[in-house]
Amino acid sequence: MAASRIVIENCAIATVDANDTEYASGYVVVADNLIESVGAGSAPAGLENVVRRVDGTGHLLTPGLVNTHHHFYQWITRGLATDHNLFNWLVALYPTWARIDESMARAAAQGSLAMMARGGVTTAMDHHYVYPRGSGDLSGAIIGAASETGVRFTLARGSMDRGESDGGLPPDFAVESLDDALAATEATVDRYHDDSFDAMTQIAVAPCSPFSVSTELMRQGAELARRKGVRLHTHGSETVEEEQFCKGLFGMGPTDYFESTGWLGSDVWMAHCVHMNDSDIAAFARTGTGVAHCPSSNARLGAGIARVTDMLKAGVPVGLGVDGTASNESGELHTELRNALLVNRLGVHREAALTARQALRLGTHGGAQVLGRAGQIGSIEAGKLADLVLWKLDTLAHSSIADPVVALILGAAAPVTLSLVGGRTVVEDNHLTTVDEDAVARSTRTEARRLARITAAG
């Protein structure tokens, strides 16, 4: 059967390939779910079975954005504990989070996914680690929401087994036992993980953090992931307090602790990594361990500025993350492109920290690397999956910025005229085509109020 083709032409193109190839005016041909060709000028003549032509005049075409760290459930607890550091923030919010159920998790995931997708995200991930007893099928609810939204998705099946009585931060009724956490994680991998080229759903093994997880869960979690052939994810080196916690409990800093438990490697990525010394960065580079950089959340919680420039120079894979919307209320990844550049220029490298094109690479190819999918997504190249975003740059907001990449990164948030995931339209004229945004908004408001009532009742 002949391939159905979509032709996008007359637009600026930033391919984010290995050579950072760009076209001032070019085209992309999509055949079914793959990129068939990309180049300068007009699309080839005589293409067969063209089902749609898109005039991209006044637009920039980029790879779809790739989110590498998030907590969807937090969508229904936005705007709380706004003046806290990480540990105090967690202590304040864990009693609320410990009461989420399946209906809340689904609504929160729908809200989180919708906000990201309409802002150019074509591959999302969720690090979900709160599984209160009797809360229902939370993983299934989250994966179902991602399927409805139409984006590629990695569920990092999290877990916690160190409650308050064991010196951890979460309430005891919000944590699982070691055996239950491992069994549930393995069952999630077996049921949902797809390792095919065009997979829409993948699973990672993701114990939450050193201060909410036992050493045995870390070790056995790493063994489980490698036995199953899936990736590993957790939080690392987010705050000074975390480093002090690790040294007090384990007698070593976070990176050394991770290495001792099998948690460094090319199949691992860590969220945040704000407080990394030269030795830590060298260990990540040596082992190929990736980093999910979350600039807005790090600023919101006063965690600090991650050494992204030094990581990239050392060869550490780095992508961008929204993080949970209880510490980044906007819930949008495209704003992280700008914030990554601006925040990192406040650090020691100042104006040499990041360029606009480096920021775009973090949000696309870098994210694909971190999720282990750089062979399929993250750049506009023939043979890769047709995950593409067409950004509108011909309005007042960007009218006097000649460089389209600079306009996208440093200008106001650009509307998304078209977003494709595997050639399927997910966003058209800045609106989702897969879900009803108003219905999602109503659902998330309802579930947020219900959660607030349950928490207040104790």
Give an account of the 3D structure.
- The chain is an alpha/beta fold.
- 36% of the residues lie in helices and 22% in strands.
- The chain is built from 14 helices and 17 strands.
- The chain has helices at 86-97, 102-118, 138-149, 178-192, 215-228, 240-250, 254-260, 278-287, 295-300, 308-314, 334-344, 356-370, 404-410, 437-457; strands spanning 5-14, 22-31, 34-40, 50-55, 59-63, 65-66, 121-128, 152-159, 201-207, 231-236, 268-272, 290-293, 318-320, 388-392, 416-421, 424-428, 431-432.
- Strands 1, 2, 3, 4, 5, 14, 15, 16 and 17 form a nine-stranded mixed sheet that branches.
- Strand 1 and strand 2 form a beta hairpin.
- Helix 11 crosses helix 12 and helix 12 (356-370) packs across helix 13 (404-410).
- The longest helix has 21 residues, at 437-457.
- It is globular and about 70 Å long.
- The model has no long low-confidence stretch (mean pLDDT 96).
